[in-house]
Specification:
2 helices, DUF2798, transmembrane helix, DUF2798 domain-containing protein, about 0% strand, about 80 residues, mainly alpha, transmembrane
Length: about 80
C-alpha cells in the first residue's frame, strides 16, 4: 500500500492520466479516424498531454478546493431544503 501522505499526488496522477487519455483520444479521433492508424498517434499525444496535465492538476486542485469551499455552505451531507 501507498502511505496516505502521497494521496494528493496519487489523486493528481490518476485524474490527470484519465482526463488526458480521454481528451487526447477525442482530439486524435477528430483529426485521424481509427482506420488510419489511430492508436500510435493517440498514445503519443496522450503521453505529451499527461506530462503537462499532471503538474497542472497539482497546481489547480488546491485552487478548485478553495473555490468549492467558498461556493458551498457547510451542513449535513445530502441534506436538501425545499
Amino acid at each position: 500500500m501507498i502511505p496516505a501522505r502521497y494521496g494528493p499526488a496519487l489523486f493528481s496522477l490518476i485524474l490527470s492520466g484519465t482526463m488526458s487519455l480521454l481528451v487526447s483520444g477525442i482530439a486524435t479521433y477528430r483529426t485521424l479516424p481509427p482506420h488510419q492508424g489511430f492508436v500510435g498517434p493517440w498514445m503519443s499525444a496522450w503521453l505529451t498531454a499527461w506530462l503537462l496535465a499532471f503538474p497542472a492538476v497539482m497546481l489547480a486542485a488546491p485552487l478548485a478546493r478553495r473555490a468549492v469551499a467558498r461556493l458551498t455552505t457547510p451542513g449535513a451531507k445530502g441534506s436538501h431544503r425545499h
